[in-house]
Design brief:
The protein has 96 residues and is an alpha+beta fold. The chain is 25% helix and 19% strand. The protein has two helices and four strands.
């Protein structure tokens, strides 16, 4: 995938994704953050929106995982970084 010039569309895409992600986590103490190069205004980047879902220890990882799976995401492991859990949207899942 090629590097693209920065576009404010990336922030708008994140905001749409965040709205969708907030639905299954309503009422739970989670924070949804835009991270990575597309979150930096003016920075050229691969056009992939990276998101962190930060949750408290009172919520189990399995609960987070199950809610993301219901939205069409699949668990992609820790990708070699202990303590990180990555998810990707299934190819057949419509983008918000």
């Amino acid at each position: 995938m090629l590097i693209h010039a920065y576009t404010p569309q990336w922030q708008m895409n994140f905001e749409r994704l965040k709205q969708v992600l907030q639905i299954p986590f309503a009422g739970l103490p989670v924070v949804i953050e835009h991270v990575g190069s597309t979150a930096v205004p003016g920075l050229a980047a691969k056009p992939i929106i990276d998101i962190d879902i930060v949750y408290s220890a009172e919520i189990s990882f399995e609960e987070i995982k199950n809610r993301l799976v219901q939205l069409g995401y699949y668990h992609n492991g820790d990708q070699g970084i202990t303590g990180r859990e990555a998810f990707r949207r299934s190819p057949d899942t419509a983008a918000p």
